[in-house]
Amino acid sequence: MTVLVRGVVFRRSIRSSYATLDLVVRDCGDDEESQHVIVTVQFSSCIRDQDKNQDGHEKSGTGPSPTQIRSYFRRSFKLGDEVEVKGDRWLTEQATDEATTKRGHRKKLELAGFLPPTGSGTSTYSTALSANTTTNTGMRLVRRLVWDNIQCQEARARFYPTCTPAVSADDKNYATPAVSADDNNAEKNIKTKRKRRKSDNDEEKTKAVRHGGGIGKRKQGEIIANFLIDKVSSKVEGSRDEAITYLNSGSGVIDAAGGSGHVSLGLALRGVRSTVVDPRPTVGRLPKRDRKALRMAIRRRKNEEADSTGGGSTNDGDPNVTVASPISELQANPPIQFSTLRAWFASKPAGVDTTYREGTRVLNEDVEEGAQEDNESNVPICHMCSPDRLLPTCSGIVALHPDEATGCIVDFAVKHRIPFVVVPCCVFSRMFPNRLKSKSSGEIVSTYDDLVDWLVAKDPSIRVETLPFDGANKAVWSMFVSGST
Question: Rounded to whole angstroms, what are the CA distances from 57 to 50, 51, 115, 435?
Answer without folding.
Answer: 11, 9, 20, 39
